[in-house]
Write a structure and sequence with these properties.
The complex is a heterodimer. Chain A is α+β, with helices and mostly antiparallel strands. Chain A has one domain: Heat Shock Protein 90, CATH 3.30.565. Chain A has four helices and five strands, in the order βααββααββ. A five-stranded antiparallel β-sheet of chain A has the order 1-2-3-5-4, with helices on one face. Chain A is globular and about 40 Å long. By secondary structure, chain B is of the alpha+beta class. Chain B folds into three domains: 115 residues; 66 residues; 134 residues, Heat Shock Protein 90 (2-Layer Sandwich). Helices cover 69% and strands 11% of the residues of chain B. A five-stranded mixed β-sheet of chain B has the order 1-2-3-5-4, with helices on one face. In chain B, helix 4 runs antiparallel to helix 5 and helix 8 runs parallel beside helix 9. The N terminus of chain B is likely disordered. Classes of the chains: A alpha+beta, B alpha+beta. Chains A and B meet through helix 1, helix 2 and helix 4 of A and helix 3, helix 5 and helix 10 of B.
Chain lengths: 159, 345
């Protein structure tokens, strides 16, 4: 799991991609959005899109990031009622990107493998959600246990 | 054992005739879809106007939700594209008198940004479909395994027994006058044929249990359990259920499949001695647990997908589609419990 602080100091990410460990990962938190409803989803999308734009992401890339944030925020509102979305600027080996951490203390996901499969929806929805998100982003990590909330961490890098 | 007549009665063949009722339902579905699309396109235009006037993130979120709705309404990408084009053209037409060239340019740019947002759920869906395609070979493999299992029963059991019956009859034909000898042989042959009949009946029952439609879930489960008991040498007990009446057909069918799949898995992998199947109704849902005392597996492992097999995975999807839940709990050496519930309405 990524550790970060809010004082805009880079910290080292341990254990992920050991081959690239020589390149330290710097994480600067740009914004923290409390997600309870539509207004917050809009806010989180806006923050994410603005950061991506600042980092020079292509237009389509910005849209996909907003889509990813929507899906993650949607899941929070739908299943956990409320949670938090952290949007951070990340830098590793000269490359910049956006990291989004969506976490909640909701019911958690009983079977993560299933939730990541296409077409899976426990709410009778389209079942786009997590499987689509996983395909869009460059890095994806999920940590969830029944009754202990869910934390999804994604990263998208500049092209 | 129940009398054989009802199970092997020939099924009525129905001529493929024009089904007026079906056609009527389809027509009303078409009309409903048209109405939905009409209200969708009205909504589309008003949200597009909202975006063009305010350029806010809120209307972009709306655009993305529109894209999700369009997917849910099963609107094709080309139709959606046309719908967008029409909305843009009609809005532009209203404004053409007041707009300068530069304003038209910005209008078009904003409209395409809006459209990009609408399309993003389609992009998600495209990416998901890639994943599904990658899984299909495994599904075919599962079908192939099932075909193998059926072929095995037909060849190694039924065909063998029939071959023995043929040999017996052949022997009778060599010495048809010997009444004592022939009578004994004939009763042998009859027993063999009875075995084959029973095997075929069980097999066809497993493929699509008629008794499920005729008598309901519990009798069907009892028959299923008897078959598995015999073939796999398991002790299986069904608890509860005697008080249950008929339930909606799709619930009965699906719960039957869940138990069938679970028992197949137990007999293939669990090395269990006894299995307990409990069926009950609680909080408006049909619930069922299947527990065994077999070797178990680590249900929390990463390779759960492999451990459970694609059959259970598909079952979980089907149960979720009816609004139910389904989970497996197991530990190495501690047996396995599968619990499923399906709401009754």
């Amino acid at each position: 799991m990524v550790e970060f602080n809010t004082q805009n100091q880079g910290v080292n990410e341990k254990g992920v991609l050991p081959l690239l460990k020589v390149n330290q990962l710097h994480v600067d938190v740009e914004s923290i959005v409390n997600v309870r409803g539509i207004e917050d989803i809009i806010d989180a999308r806006h923050q994410g899109r603005e950061l991506a734009r600042k980092l020079g992401f292509a237009m389509g890339h910005c849209t996909l990031l907003a889509t990813v944030i929507s899906e993650l925020a949607r899941n929070i509102v739908l299943y956990a009622k409320q949670g938090e979305i952290i949007i951070a600027r990340v830098e590793k080996g000269g490359q910049e990107g956006v990291k989004v951490i969506a976490s909640d203390n909701g019911p958690g996901i009983e079977n993560v493998q299933h939730a990541l499969m296409s077409g899976y929806s426990s709410s009778g929805g389209l079942g786009l959600g997590l499987s689509g998100v996983q395909q869009i982003v460059d890095e994806f990590d999920i940590d969830s246990q029944p009754g202990q909330g869910t934390k999804v961490t994604i990263a998208m890098w500049q092209d | 054992m129940r009398p054989m007549t009802s199970d092997i009665a020939p099924q009525k063949k129905t001529e493929p005739a024009y089904d007026f009722e079906d056609a009527e339902i389809k027509a009303s579905q078409r009309i409903e879809k048209t109405l939905n699309i009409k209200s969708f396109s009205d909504q589309y235009e008003s949200i597009l106007i909202d975006y063009l006037e305010n350029k806010g993130e809120g209307s972009l979120l709306h655009a993305y939700e529109l894209g999700r709705d369009a997917l849910a309404l099963n609107i094709g990408l080309l139709d959606l594209s046309m719908l967008h084009q029409k909305a843009v053209m009609s809005l532009l037409n209203d404004r053409l008198n007041q707009y300068t060239n530069a304003m038209v340019f910005f209008f078009m740019e904003a409209a395409s940004r809006f459209y990009e947002e609408v399309l993003s759920p389609y992009e998600l869906s495209r990416l998901s479909s890639l994943q599904v395609n990658a899984m299909l070979p495994r599904l075919y493999e599962a079908f192939e395994m099932e075909a193998k299992r059926i072929a095995h029963i037909l060849h190694d059991e039924s065909a063998q027994t029939l071959a023995v019956a043929c040999m017996e009859i052949n022997e009778i034909s060599l010495d048809p006058k010997n009444a004592d000898y022939s009578l004994e042989k004939i009763s042998n042959v009859m027993e063999l044929l009875e075995n084959v009949r029973e095997q075929l009946r069980t097999l066809s029952h497993e493929l699509r249990p008629l008794i499920l439609d005729q008598l309901g879930l519990i009798p069907a489960l009892k028959l299923l359990v008897n078959g598995v008991k015999e073939r796999a040498g398991l002790q299986i007990e069904i608890i509860g259920g005697d008080l249950l009446g008929r339930m909606p057909q799709q619930v009965e069918t699906l719960m039957y499949r869940v138990v069938q799949e679970a028992l197949t898995n137990v007999s293939r992998h669990a090395k269990a001695d006894t299995v307990t199947v409990r069926v009950w109704i609680e909080n408006g849902a049909l619930k069922c647990s299947i527990s065994d005392d077999g070797v178990g597996f680590d249900s929390k492992s990463e390779n759960l997908r492999q451990a459970q097999g694609i059959g259970l995975l598909g079952m979980k999807e089907r149960v979720a589609a009816l609004g139910g839940t389904f989970f497996v709990d197991s530990e190495v050496g501690k047996g396995t419990v599968l619990i499923s519930e399906i709401p009754l309405c």
